[in-house]
């Protein structure tokens, strides 16, 4: 989807969710605060949650409507909000302690390119957290993009995992009001 289509989706609904994803919160809660990028931050629920815990956060998204929602939230002034396409935006090498990529769904080559570049932005020991709809969600889960070319899987994220010391690379279940959704999780750190 293009930026204009995401603007329209956000404009149709006030604040999709103000809460962080439960697994994202569980994994990040124990980390010491540092420098983070929330890539494809949308309305900034994770960026705001991290900033409230002392992180220096840059929130990047190409939807101006989504970013404006985030900017309107309490605590938003602690965050650098950047309107940019993540397929071309870049951060300095070895400048970050965390890159979070939640529910960004691009074609596989673009996904691998973005995530590979993101590993390069991490300091040694810095963390990459990727969470998104799993391919199996099409047949065994609810919601999410219905185009198989845009979905994650353990196999599709393996080339990125190969660049990391991996704590978790797996399919995970997420309870939703509509039923169980299947996500792919990649959680690892840049080798020291
Ligand atoms: C499902 S939302 C997820 C938002 C946020 N990460 C969250 O978990 O709440 C996907 C986001 O990806 C953004 N996005 C998709 N493709 C993008 C691109 N090429 N560059 C920047 N943002 C993009 C959309 O604008 C949208 O805000």
What does this structure look like?
- The chain has 192 residues and is an alpha/beta fold.
- It has one domain: 3-Layer(aba) Sandwich (Rossmann fold), CATH 3.40.50.
- It has a seven-stranded mixed sheet with strand order 3-2-1-4-5-7-6.
- The longest helix is centred in the middle third of the chain and has 14 residues.
- The structure holds S-adenosylmethionine.
- The site of S-adenosylmethionine (SAM) has 15 residues, from loops.
Q: Which key features would you list for this structure?
A:
192 residues, alpha/beta, Rossmann fold, 7-stranded mixed beta sheet, 7 strands, binds S-adenosylmethionine
Total DSSP E strands = 7
Please state how the strands of the largest beta sheet are arranged side by side: 3-2-1-4-5-7-6
- Helix/strand-derived category reads alpha/beta
CATH architecture label name: 3-Layer(aba) Sandwich
Topology (SSEs and partners):
Layout (H helix, E strand, L loop, with lengths): L2 H10 L9 H7 L6 E5 L5 H8 L3 E6 L2 H8 L7 E5 L12 E7 L5 H14 E12 L3 H4 L13 H8 L3 E12 L2 E11 L3
Parallel strand pairs: 1-2, 1-4, 2-3, 4-5
Antiparallel strand pairs: 5-7, 6-7
Helix pairs in contact: 5-7
The structure holds S-adenosylmethionine (SAM).
């Amino acid at each position: 989807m293009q930026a204009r289509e995401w603007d329209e989706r956000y404009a149709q609904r006030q604040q999709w969710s103000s809460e962080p994803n439960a697994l994202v919160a569980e994994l990040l809660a124990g980390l010491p605060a540092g420098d983070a990028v929330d890539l494809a931050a949308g309305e900034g629920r994770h960026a705001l949650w991290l900033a409230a815990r002392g992180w220096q956060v840059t929130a990047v998204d190409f939807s101006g409507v989504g970013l404006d929602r985030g900017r309107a939230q309490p605590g938003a002034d602690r965050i650098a909000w950047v309107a940019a396409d993540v397929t071309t935006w870049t951060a300095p090498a070895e400048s970050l302690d965390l890159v979070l990529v939640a529910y960004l769904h691009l074609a596989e080559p673009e996904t691998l390119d973005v995530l590979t570049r993101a590993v390069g932005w991490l300091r040694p020991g810095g963390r990459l957290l990727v969470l998104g709809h799993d391919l199996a969600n099409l047949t065994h889960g609810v919601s999410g993009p219905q185009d198989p070319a845009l979905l994650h899987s353990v196999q599709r994220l393996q080339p990125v995992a190969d660049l990391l010391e991996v704590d978790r690379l797996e399919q995970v279940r997420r309870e939703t009001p509509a039923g169980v959704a299947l996500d792919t999780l990649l959680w690892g750190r840049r080798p020291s």
